[in-house]
């Protein structure tokens, strides 16, 4: 029997990442990766279907070439500032003959919980179970098989704009993919980088992308809050460009080569070279670069902290904070986060770490790269049928068929605070 093959796409604002993996003993073995420069996608939203399809094609081609396998369908992330989370409740009577909770009662009570008021231009992307109550018994994780008369559930519902998912689906359709299986990017990232203990104790994951920063709070093992902040790593690059009067590409390279988030960790005598518009170089203290970077990172922390404070979650995050996404590659990020937490709260810093998708086999280049957390995470979720049943469609992911091919043949298919 052939080992199952799955493929995922993360189409972000700066790049499109594709990962093809083999399922081996319920674990992922990455056999192909591809990454292309993003086109036609702004702030995680497709604004030009033709351009976005071309960018996705390049990324998929690279992954297929490496894997020697042609993907006939994919799982894809969806993200952007339009993504919102909301907690909801549902309740039904258990009215079957034996007063026993079955999968039918679970389906009915979840439908009851999904009956929320929202604008006509929004849709439910995912419904995540939190807990159940049966008569007088609370905090039940799985009530199937139990007896009772009144079943209640608490869920976390993630919604998004319909036109965003419609345009992403149309883009994938142009590639010959169904475009029916979407998972919110920060949900995938959380799956890839968080441990079970962290989710149980209480943790927040920050996925710092190109144009946005997404956050997701886990308490008692499940999701309780989702939000998106409209600032990402590009804003840091733009600040460097304006502050030093250099081009965006030069600013991005400077950030990647010498960027640091926390001034306290920089030696005052360190000197770096900066390209000028004339093509020559000038020297500046490295601390000058950090003086540009740190305020923007603090703004991201501040806005994320305000989001957490609104929901009064900060004191519940015993496992602290986990940073991931491409923006988490910035050195000094966790040091600044802990120092900032102390400054605004006057308490002992909660823990902070960088989350990477290291629970995979195969190609190791991406195992320590937080930029791949989201796409790896959605593939990990595809291994968990119970999780996939919560996707809006209410159906399992369809069985994906893959064709082995000559990797050199022509491919047919033409990104706590105050």
From TrEMBL:
Subcellular localization: Cell membrane
Domain SHS2 as annotated: residue spans: 6-193
Keyword annotations: Cell cycle, Cell division, Cell membrane, Membrane
InterPro entries the UniProt entry points to: ATPase_NBD, Cell_div_FtsA, FtsA/MreB, SHS2_FtsA
Lineage: superkingdom: Bacteria
Record-linked NCBIfam families: ftsA
Name by which UniProt lists this protein: Cell division protein FtsA
Organism: Brachyspira aalborgi
Phylogenetic lineage: Bacteria, Pseudomonadati, Spirochaetota, Spirochaetia, Brachyspirales
